[in-house]
Amino acid sequence: MPELFEILGSFRDIEVIASGRGVKVGAWLKRTYGGSNWRKLKGRALVRDTTGAVYDAEVHWFECHGIGRRRFKIKQT
Known about the structure:
Blueprint lengths: L4 E15 L6 H8 L4 E12 L4 E11 L3 E9 L1
Antiparallel strand pairs: 1-2, 2-3, 3-4
């Protein structure tokens, strides 16, 4: 599935939302991507949507050591 947005630059104001057993889809992440210690994080970044508009947005994602960042989602603009 193609991405509906592109992240421009780097994240800032990164915070951990959940880790360990607090990640509700942890079992699915482990089956799909591997790894064992998934965390859910949020941060702000510049994003470009499919129309070409660029804006500052809050982005949520999952991250695991050795796997990297997966499943980005814009939550707030």
